[in-house]
Amino acid sequence: MKNWIVGLIIILLLISCNKDVPGTQVRVSSLTESVYASGIIKAGAQYNVFATVNGILKKVYVSEGEKIKKGKSLFLIEDQTSRLNTENARLALQLSAQNIKENSNRLRELELPVHLTKDRMQNDSMLYSRQIKLWENNVGSKVELEQRKLAYESSRSAYLSSLSRYRQAKTQLTTEYRQAQNNLKINEELQSNYTIKSETDGLVYDILREQGELVTPQAPIAVIGREADFIIELQVDEYDIVKTKPGQKVLITMDSYKGQVFDARIERIYPIMNERSRTFTVDAVFIKPPQHLYPNLTLEANIVIQVKKNVKIIPREYLVDDTYVYTDPEKKNRSQVKVGLMDYQYAEILSGLDTGQYVYKP
C-alpha cells in the first residue's frame, strides 16, 4: 500500500513536470529577414565649419538657431597682419601703376639718354655723309673720313644700347605691375580667409567657439545644415553590407519617439569601410518623417532584406544547433529539420515538421 502511494506521487510529479515544459505549434506566417544598424539623424547638407587660418575669434555674426543664406559672414578672425600685408600690396600696385605710365618720372629718366644718343647719332651721321661727299671731290683726308665714320658708328652703338635699356626697363616695369596685381589678389584672398562665410542656405545648429577664443584649422567652429531636410546616417556591419542595397525599406525606432516605428528607405551606400569600427556608412531618408527632428538624435534601424509569406515558422529558441527540434515534452525524441530564413525571433522550417505539430523548448 505504501509503495503504491509513492509510485502514484512520482507519476503525478512527472505529469506535472511535463505540463510545465514550454511548447508551441508550428504555424504559418510571414517572415522578414532584416539587418540591424545603429545611427543618428543629420540635417541635410550638414557640415562642420572650419577656419583655414589660425587666429583669435574676433567677431561672431550669427547665433544658434538663426536662418542664414549662402555667402553670409559667420565669423571674423583677427587679421591685423593680413590687413597690413594687403595694404602694402595695394601701395606697391599703385607705385607700379605710376611707373608704367608713359609720362612717369621713371620712364622719362630712361627716355632722356635715348633722345640724347639719337641726336648725337643723327649729327654724326650728317657729318659722316658730308665727309664722304668731300672725299669724293678730293677734299679732305682719308683720316678725317675714318674719324667721322668711327664717330658715327660709336654714337649709333650708344643709341641702340640706350634704346635697348629703355625697352628692357619698360618690359620690367610692365612685369612688376602684373606681379603687383597678382600679389594684391593673393593678399586679398588670404585676408578673405579671415572672414568665414556660409557655404549654403540653412540653419546654424551649433556654435562651438566663443569670441576671444583661439581657432585653428583642426577644430570646427560651428555646425550648419538645412532646416527641414534630414538624413538618417546608419552604420552597417561589414558582414551585412553585401545584403544592403539602395531602395530597401528601413524600420526606424528612436528613444525620442518611444513605441513608434517610422518607415524609411536607403538612398546611398558609401563604398569605403571605416577601419576602426569595421562598418559602412549608409544614408536613408524618411518616407514620412516625425513632426520634430534634431541633428544627432540616436536611432536603431532594421533594414528589410526580404519578406517571405505563408511559411512554416517556429521560435528560433526552440532549435537545437539550428538543426534539431524536440517533438515530445520529455525531450526523448528529436527530429531533424531543414531551416530556411531566420530573423532574431523566428526560423523558417522548410522540411521535417508539419503545420500544427508541437515542438518543445530545449
How would you explain this protein's 3D organization?
This protein has 362 residues and is of the alpha+beta class. It has four domains: 21-31 and 308-360, conserved putative lor/sdh protein from methanococcus maripaludis s2 fold (Beta Barrel); 35-45 and 226-307, Beta Barrel (Elongation Factor Tu (Ef-tu), domain 3); 47-77 and 195-223, OB fold (Dihydrolipoamide Acetyltransferase, E2P), CATH 2.40.50; 80-192. Helix content is 34%, strand content 36%. A six-stranded antiparallel beta barrel has the order 2-11-14-13-12-15. It has a four-stranded antiparallel sheet with strand order 3-10-8-5, with no helix packed on it. It has a four-stranded antiparallel sheet with strand order 7-6-4-9, with no helix packed on it. Strand 13 and strand 14 form a beta hairpin. It is elongated, with a radius of gyration of 46 Å. It starts with a helix and ends with a strand.
In short:
By secondary structure, this protein is α+β, with helices and mostly antiparallel strands.
Question: What class, by secondary structure content?
Answer: alpha+beta
Integer count of domains: 4
- Largest beta sheet: what is the strand line-up? 2-11-14-13-12-15
Ends apart, CA distance between termini? 37 Å
In terms of DSSP E residues, the strand content is 35-45%
SSE order = HEEEEEEHHHEEEEEEEEEEEEEE
Helix count from the secondary structure assignment: 4
Instruction: Report the sheet with the most strands, covering strand number, pairing sense and barrel closure.
Output: 6 strands, antiparallel, barrel
Question: pLDDT average, as an integer?
Answer: 85
Give the % helix.
25-40%
Topology, number of strands: 20
Radius of gyration: 46 Å
Principal-axis shape: elongated
